[in-house]
From TrEMBL:
Origin species: Hyphococcus luteus
Family statement drawn from the similarity comment of this UniProt entry: Belongs to the uroporphyrinogen-III synthase family.
UniProt cross-references to PANTHER family, sorted A to Z: UROPORPHYRINOGEN-III SYNTHASE, CHLOROPLASTIC
Any GO BP annotation: protoporphyrinogen IX biosynthetic process
Function: Catalyzes cyclization of the linear tetrapyrrole, hydroxymethylbilane, to the macrocyclic uroporphyrinogen III.
Broad EC category: lyase
Catalytic activity: hydroxymethylbilane = uroporphyrinogen III + H2O
Signal peptide: none
EC number: 4.2.1.75
Residue ranges occupied by any Tetrapyrrole biosynthesis uroporphyrinogen III synthase domain in the UniProt entry: 40-249
Biological pathway: Porphyrin-containing compound metabolism; protoporphyrin-IX biosynthesis; coproporphyrinogen-III from 5-aminolevulinate: step 3/4
Listed name of the protein: Uroporphyrinogen-III synthase
């Protein structure tokens, strides 16, 4: 690909050749999340006049789980991937569905669920929503990743619910050779966009392996997603005030040349 074709608002996908990030005055961001969500993020950055480089650090693997008929009182989705990676049973479509956030709720409605409630974007608010809307003792079917973030199972069981969790997908780090292209432009990236703790762990390890000090900015959807960058002391860490895509785009738009919202201190905590 001819790097002279890059302009403000360009989106570069991971199957394209690397480019010369110095050719444009626009800021270049590495979007690390998986498709299709990475395209939503790129659209937001394009509106800000930035270049997006789409290189997911995780791959989503469907587990082809068989979801047997059961006497569930409600369905829980803690990610949009869980919605996309399962085949809805017709007898579940009228059950109350509790989704971790608005995007996951939209995916659930698109899948045919008719009674969908949206939490505030994280596991804690999802637990709160379930407790508000579902009677204690209810049977909850949680469709999730193989290793879901947070301990929703433990929290609901402690509150008196009966929960069954079924893994319908898993996320695995991409092979290191997939990131070779990023390594060649790392010192010219303005920022890296992180949407999950697992992605944060992969990227932080990659940065440590590639460059002694990387002084760019890392934009994280939550403190948990930011935590792995404790070991990347030179990076500027920005954290969204709410775990949503809208807050992430606003964070990037508002950051400019400001100081980050928090730094990691020497003890490994936030200050």
């Amino acid at each position: 690909m001819n790097s002279s074709n890059f302009s403000i608002g360009t989106t570069v996908s991971d199957d394209e050749e690397c480019f010369d990030a110095t050719r444009s005055a626009a800021k270049t961001f590495w979007i690390t999340r998986t498709a299709p969500g990475n395209h939503r993020t790129a659209e937001g950055l394009t509106k800000l006049g930035h270049i997006s480089f789409l290189m997911p650090v995780l791959e989503i693997i469907e587990l082809r789980a068989v979801i047997a008929s059961c006497n569930a009182d409600a369905i829980v989705f803690s990610s949009a991937n869980a919605v996309r990676m399962h085949n809805p049973r017709s007898e579940f479509l009228d059950l109350p569905v509790f989704a971790v956030g608005d995007h996951t709720a939209s995916e659930a409605m698109r899948a045919g669920y008719r009674n969908v409630y949206s939490a505030d974007g994280d596991v804690r608010s999802l637990e709160k929503l379930i407790r508000q809307r579902s009677a204690v003792g209810g049977r909850i079917l949680h469709l999730s990743a193989r290793d879901p973030a947070g301990d929703l199972l433990g929290a609901l069981e402690s509150a008196g619910y009966r929960q069954k969790r079924k893994a319908v997908y898993e996320s695995r780090p991409v092979t290191r050779d997939r990131l070779n292209c990023i390594a060649s432009i790392l010192d010219r990236l303005h920022g890296i966009v992180i949407h999950s703790p697992k992605a944060g762990s992969v990227v932080a390890a990659f940065l440590r392996s590639q460059i002694k000090t990387w002084e760019g900015s890392v934009y994280c959807i939550s403190p948990a997603a930011a935590f792995p960058f404790d070991a990347v002391k030179s990076a500027r860490i920005f954290i969204a005030d709410h775990p949503s895509e809208e807050s992430m785009i606003r964070l990037i738009a508002d950051s400019g040349d400001d100081e980050p919202d928090c730094f990691f201190n020497e003890s490994g905590g936030y200050s």
